[in-house]
Amino acid sequence: MPGTYKTEAVVLRSIRYGEADRVLHLYSATRGRIGAIAKGSRRPRSRFGGRLEPFFRLHLVLHEGRGELVTVTSASTVAAHPGLRSSGPALMAAARGCDSVLRLLDSEEANPPAYNLLCRYLALLDGEESASGDGAGDGAAGPGTALAFRLKLALAAGFSPELSSCARCGEADGLTGFSGAAGGVVCGSCERGGFELSPEAHRLMVEALGRPLASAPSASDRALRQAERAISETLEYHAHVRLRAAA
Ligand SMILES: [Zn+2]
């Protein structure tokens, strides 16, 4: 139904289009994923200025017509994240985070936990909130926080792996493996078809889900790799989504 509405959104991707326009992939607070066009936004004195770039968090007025894309009527900045833009590792982490949102959350329904998580991650990467990860040198842009973001995003999207008991038989002890097909940790007798999951990697995932993003746990490279594989395989089997490597 045609009409104009306001929402807050994060720019996930911004693509040059035609002579002077941009097509935006947005993740919004109130309508989930939105595809939008900003006409004339690449003209030198565009009213949009430089704020239609990835990682900007914006207040938007959008007009919905008959086409697939809504039209951006106005945009004002909630957070530009200048700190994030001046750090290579933070930029890479933000790009991967936005790419995960693009691949995993394509619905036009609002998902407040996912939106708030994305905003929190960008703010952390910008340095607005200091990360207090307990690993040496593993701050907001580090692999521990990236993994926690991915796991929390999977939870928000409804695809969190089972971590408390065997995903096949329900056994609570001897959880030594992980199976993407089963969607969680598995016990020794159900491990066939899965892969070995160390106690450290298991604990890492439980703590990453349990703690705020700003105090995401860090771990050895081996545990991080196993946990990343566990999340990736869960999403491949159950969400039919393949994420880019986390680091
Ligand atoms: Zn089992």
Architecture overview:
The protein is 32% helix and 24% strand. The protein contains six helices and eight strands; from the N terminus they run βββββααααβββαα. β2 and β3 form a beta hairpin. The radius of gyration is 20 Å and the shape is elongated. The structure holds zinc ion. Zinc ion binds next to β7.
- Supply Rg: 20 Å
Structural class: alpha+beta
Q: Please describe the biggest sheet, giving its number of strands, its sense, and whether it closes into a barrel.
A: 5 strands, mixed, barrel
Which regions have little confidence, pLDDT < 50, spanning 5+ residues?
131-137
What is the strand arrangement across the widest sheet?
Answer: 1-2-3-5-4
**What is the share of helical residues?**
25-40%
Order of H and E elements: EEEEEHHHHEEEHH
Oligomeric state: single chain
Distance between the termini: 42 Å
List strands and helices in order, with pairings.
Elements: E1 3-17, E2 21-28, E3 32-38, E4 57-64, E5 70-79, H1 82-85, H2 88-104, H3 112-126, H4 143-156, E6 175-179, E7 184-187, E8 195-196, H5 199-210, H6 221-238
Parallel strand pairs: 3-5
Antiparallel strand pairs: 1-2, 1-4, 2-3, 4-5, 6-7, 6-8
Bound molecules: zinc ion.
